[in-house]
Specification:
Layout: E1 3-12, E2 15-19, H1 20-23, E3 37-41, H2 48-60, E4 71-76, E5 82-83, E6 94-97, H3 99-105, E7 121-122, H4 126-139, H5 149-184, H6 194-197, H7 204-215, H8 224-234, H9 252-264, H10 274-278, H11 280-293, H12 309-318, H13 321-343, H14 360-393, H15 408-428, H16 432-454, H17 457-497, E8 500-501, H18 502-517, E9 522-531, E10 536-545, E11 548-549, H19 555-569, E12 581-585, H20 593-608, E13 615-620, H21 623-629, E14 641-649, E15 652-657, H22 660-664, H23 668-681, H24 690-711, H25 718-726, H26 730-744, H27 759-776, H28 778-787, H29 792-799
Parallel strand pairs: 3-13, 3-14, 6-12, 12-13
Antiparallel strand pairs: 1-2, 1-4, 4-5, 7-8, 9-10, 10-11, 14-15
């Protein structure tokens, strides 16, 4: 769990809008992150200290209020990002050495009357030391791969939790997938069957709501038969209104009453032929014969005999007006009966297709009833007809009338039932939409009920609930182990506090001063004095030289004491054994070469070699110190170390990967040559490269001083070296001399700082220098180019 990157920095000194992911990428385009060891190189005022202040904000939980609206994001492995708003959210031990640390802890540097803030390291107490050691062994070591003690127990608990969490997530994800498929799958999902299930915006949340409905007490899905009926309903389209039928007028009652009169009517007996009265068939035969022979020859067509006047008179008396009138009445009534039969033979005929399907069952029952009742009605009419025909055939004799069963009322009810259905069907057109919507809901819930049953949804949910309880139990077990570790650490710290010894802190500083730097005449002394606030004792540190409080320390001495104090403080009771993230910002200020090496040695032996850190950051402006840092164990292993630069362009800075030439070649000479090369080949219209020209004068002066010293070690003056170097090219030597004098020093010509840099002159001088080196020593020129990662062929092609 170490710092991965400064993801974003804005409004923080020279960092105005820095975006790590956009800049810090390797030659394959992959984002590069911090390693266990990280080296920064940058000129003064390029932003190194600003970066250290960001990390120190992680240590202190606050950042200076002198910054106006600062913003930054620090990415930490396995933890949430840390920003200016949650600086205390992380759990890392961080220790930073920079100028702010020095000002806060070694105030005597800026004010001789101030003291050094004391700190305590563990003192000598054999019993307590043994107890602390045993507690520490029980606590164990917090290694990522091979932890021990409680940390191993925590690792195992985390693994058990991880397995339980994975199992829970897998089962939950599988059920979630089934629900998603059922809700929104294009092949089988409810969403893509709106014509049947009615919701084009159906989703998993709606499916879960429907599942709750199907699992509620009292829910019963529709039957298969109901399902088919609803499917038919969904195919319905609005029907045109069905035209009303006139209410029928059934005449059976009137016909029956009239028939009864005719059938039972008696005729006058006088003048009747006795033989014909007794024989109705013969009576009918005679009557038909009389009708055939009237107004025709007098001879009988049957027997050929003459029909006498007396016979005609007898027949006229027998078939008198009364009987004729009765016969005529019967014939007329028979015609009415026949008309009634014809009139109602197609009574209440209808087409089911004119009605909505929901009414078809009632219509089918109505049709059956209508056929049955209408048959009865026809049978009653037939009874009337038979009785009337019987009396007509035996007109002389009075008949007996049997009143037929009258079903007219039932036929009227049948008609009324039909009218009710017709009215409901016509009215249903307006209700069809809502009923179809309700049908889709019922069909959808049946589908969901079937789905719930098929996948055994309730069992799966119970299993997930069980796994969640198991997961919660494993989480609680992990928390118990974490609390046990926390309690053990607190116990160890409480025992350590019993051994706090500020004097040992001072002795540790002196040990570093003496063993590494040979300053046995300059020491740090722990002084005990009364505390007026607590009425107890307090310790203060004081710098002593030859037994007396030291005054007027040199800058180098202040730097040495400050760094030794920081290194010793890494062993205080708050830090020892915690493997902190350490940031060391430019610790070699005002130190000579020997002291620079000793600073490196101290870092190497006390931090790197002893592995007393989780992550190490070191920044410097000094190329010699950079050279030493590359000797640190693991410094050349790309998996263990990273190299970066802070580069200032105008009033803004950025972080970038250290160029290969600077990482692989250690001298400032290579760096200065590269800056001259960049100036000679820079695009004068590119504002991003303009900073090259501002630094060119210093870079060129320092490069030429070094290069020409070894080229002409016998030259008396610097000017003589330039003239000898450029030969007959007086323009080159004069322009170079002017650039070096006027732009690298403002003393005496301060107005030069108030006017723009003469870019064309800079570029021309840089070209003069490169061309002259190439002309005088091509082999050296090629070697210099290769040292900065450029082949001569590339450089030649660019010039062409």
């Amino acid at each position: 769990m170490s710092i991965k990157k400064f993801k974003h920095i804005k409004n923080l000194a020279v960092f105005q809008n820095f975006d790590w992911d956009a800049i810090i990428r390797d030659d394959k385009g992959a984002i590069v992150e911090f390693s266990p060891i990280n080296i920064f190189y940058g000129r003064n005022y390029s932003g190194k200290t600003t970066l250290s202040r960001i990390v120190r904000a992680l240590e202190l939980g606050e950042i200076s209020d002198k910054y106006e609206d600062p913003e930054f994001t620090v990415c930490i492995k396995d933890l949430s990002d840390v920003t200016q708003t949650n600086l205390s959210a992380h759990t890392k031990k961080v220790r930073v050495f920079n100028e702010d640390f020095v000002k806060e802890n070694l105030r005597f540097i800026s004010n001789a009357d101030e003291n050094i803030v004391p700190f305590a390291i563990l003192g000598g107490n054999a019993a307590l030391e043994e107890e602390i050691e045993n507690l520490s062994i029980e606590l164990g070591l917090e290694h990522d791969e091979t932890p021990t003690g409680f940390y191993l127990e925590r690792k195992n608990a985390r693994e058990i939790y991880r397995i339980a969490k994975t199992t829970h997530e897998t089962v939950s994800r599988q059920l979630d997938s089934k629900l998603t498929q059922k809700a929104t799958s294009r092949e089988t999902g409810i969403k893509y069957k709106p014509e049947r299930f009615g919701d084009q915006n159906y989703n998993k949340a709606k499916l879960e709501a429907d599942i709750d409905l199907t699992l509620a007490d009292g829910f019963e899905p529709i039957t298969d038969e109901e399902q088919q009926a609803l499917l038919r309903l969904l195919n319905e389209k609005p029907n045109p209104n069905i035209i009303a039928i006139s209410r029928p007028n059934f005449s059976l009652s009137e016909l029956s009453a009239e028939a009864e009169l005719l059938v039972t009517k008696s005729l006058t007996a006088s003048g009747k032929i006795e033989e014909l009265v007794r024989n109705s068939m013969l009576n009918k035969w005679v009557k038909d014969g009389k009708t055939l022979h009237e107004h025709k020859p007098e001879d009988c067509a049957f027997c050929g005999n003459k029909i006498t006047e007396e016979r005609w008179s007898a027949l006229e008396s027998h078939f008198d007006e009364e009987s004729e009138k009765l016969s005529s009445g019967i014939a007329s009534l028979l015609a009415k009966v026949e008309a009634e039969v014809i009139l109602f033979s197609d009574f209440l005929s209808f087409d089911n297709n004119a009605f909505f399907s929901r009414f078809h069952p009632d219509l089918n029952r109505l049709r059956v009833a209508r056929e049955h009742i209408l048959g009865q009605y026809k049978e009653s009419l037939e009874q009337l007809r038979v009785q009337l025909v019987s009396r007509a055939d035996d007109i002389i004799n009075v008949g007996t009338f049997a009143t037929p069963f009258n079903v007219s009322a039932r036929l009227v009810k049948t008609f009324d039932f039909y009218e009710t259905i017709r009215s409901q069907s016509n009215a249903y057109t307006g209700k069809l939409g809502s009923d179809q919507a309700s049908a889709k809901t019922s069909l959808r819930l049946k589908e969901v009920h079937g789905f719930v049953t098929t996948i055994q949804y309730e069992e799966e949910v119970k299993n997930i609930v069980f796994l969640q309880k198991e997961l919660n139990g494993k989480e609680e077990a992990g928390k118990m182990v974490a609390n046990k570790i926390k309690d053990q650490i607190s116990l160890i710290e409480s025992r350590q506090r019993l051994m706090n010894d500020e004097e040992k802190g001072a002795l540790k500083v002196n040990e570093y001063l003496n063993n590494y730097f040979g300053h046995d005449f300059l020491t740090l002394k722990a002084i005990e004095e009364a505390d007026s606030i607590t009425n107890g004792k307090k310790i203060r540190f004081e710098i002593v030289r030859n037994g007396n409080k030291a005054h007027h320390l040199s800058e180098g001495e202040c730097s040495l004491i400050a760094f030794c104090y920081f290194m010793a403080k890494l062993e205080d009771v708050e830090t020892k054994g915690q493997k902190p993230i350490i940031w060391i910002d430019d610790p070699i200020s005002s130190l000579d070469g020997n002291h620079i090496f000793f600073i490196y040695s101290l870092i190497n032996s006390e931090i790197v070699t002893s592995q007393e850190f989780e992550q190490l950051f070191i920044s410097t402006h000094n190329l010699d110190f950079l050279k030493y840092l590359k000797r640190l164990p693991g410094a050349l292993n790309k998996n263990q170390s990273r190299y970066f630069m802070t580069v200032r362009e105008g009033d803004k800075s950025k972080i970038k990967l250290m160029p290969k030439y600077l990482k692989d070649y250690v001298t400032e000479f290579n760096y200065l040559f590269h800056q001259i090369y960049i100036c000679a080949n820079a695009d004068t219209d590119d504002d991003d490269q303009h900073v090259v020209y501002y630094n060119f004068a210093n870079n060129a002066r320092k490069f030429l001083e070094s290069f020409l010293f070894y080229k002409y070690p016998n030259a008396a003056e610097h000017d003589d070296k330039l003239y000898r170097f450029f030969g007959d090219n007086r323009q080159a030597s004069s322009m170079t001399e002017r650039i070096n004098n006027e732009y690298s020093h403002l003393e005496g010509i301060f107005e030069r700082s108030m006017i723009p840099v003469d870019v064309p002159e800079m570029k021309k001088v840089a070209t003069f220098v490169l061309d002259r080196i190439k002309e005088k020593d091509l082999d050296q020129f090629e070697s210099l180019l290769k040292s900065i990662g450029i082949e001569l062929l590339e450089q030649t092609e660019e010039n062409v």
